[in-house]
Amino acid sequence: MELIAELANGFMELFKAGADTFAGWVIGIIPLIVVLMTAVSAVIKLIGEERVQRLAQKATTNIITRYTILPILSVLFLGNPMCYSFGRFVEEKHKPAFYDATVSFLHPVTGLFPHANGGELFVYMGIAAGVTALGYPLGSLAVRYFLVGIIVILIRGFVTEKIYAAMKAREQ
Question: I want to staple 78 with a disulfide (CB 3.0 to 4.6 A). Which of 82, 99, 133, 143 is the partner?
Answer without folding.
Answer: 82
